Amino acid sequence: MRKVHLISVTEPLLFDLALAIHQKGYEVSVSGVGLTDTTLARLEKEGCTCHGDGWFPERLTKDIHFVVLGAAVRQDNPELIRAKELGLLVLSIPEFIFQRTKEKTRVVVAGSRGKKTIISMIVCALKRQKLAFDYALTSEVPLLPDRVHLSYEARIAIIEGDEHVTSALEKRFQLEFYRPHIAILTNLMWTSATDHATPEAYHTTFRTFASSIERGGKLIYFDGDPVVKQLAQEVREDITAMPYDQHVVVEKEGKTYLQTRYGDFPVYIPDRFFLINLNAARLACRQLGVKDADFYQALSEYSVSLQP
């Protein structure tokens, strides 16, 4: 059984990644600072080895197949230093995710807002059509039991794009690794919390993301954001840029319906971005083989179930 070690398992995505790797048949060990008794008990229950709160470089051995490094790990981390001394293969989270999904159709949802909602809608439609998919998410999606699922069978992978720095070893941004076949770009709102010094640097990261789309891929972009719109106009000729905006609705007898060529579907609109996000998810699902009529039916049921 191959051995894997994950450093900084207190990072939410890394914790779920540890469980997903173990479920694939690897012998998994983890470490981290700030581990609670509840977390330690969960890791033990799931079969992952953890020697307690803190770093244990003496536990790393040459027979470890690879090490996955959390985004918050520093260069002076004793386990990272030990892994380098042993010559172990060290991968960042996005590097590992790409390696495990490179034979799948990768759908990457990126931008400053709406990612979780769009992913929830895609998940809802795929589940209703009984289409298998893997996923790696930084957000918790109510329709999914955890943030990461990896399998050999699924031919689709849904990834939540993150524009933060990858790791202590790699100063590129996480978005640059995934090489999507289908990319969704919502809007761009720079803040200092994004690991980018200026709005221009922030926008450059997303230009790099768009240029990383696989040959013949799709860029589904929000037409209402001027920066995103300009970025879409600059993509390579082999990439199909597909704009989206707010979906049309109609009011009848005090109720709201999605107005479509397949009829009107009842819908609950929880926020002002819902109808915009819906169109992004619809276009992505269409590329994955979900007919619009089936998507509308699934999203109608999904949205109505959210109604208080």
TrEMBL record:
What does the record give under GO molecular function? Answer: acid-amino acid ligase activity; ATP binding
Q: Which organism is it from?
A: Parabacteroides merdae
Task: Give the protein name, as stated in the record.
Answer: UDP-N-acetylmuramate--alanine ligase
Record Pfam families: Mur_ligase, Mur_ligase_M
Q: Which UniProt keywords apply?
A: Ligase
- List all membrane-crossing ranges: none
Q: Where is the Mur ligase N-terminal catalytic domain?
A: 17-97
Q: Which InterPro entries match?
A: Mur-like_cat_sf, Mur_ligase_cen, Mur_ligase_N, MurCDEF_pg_biosynth
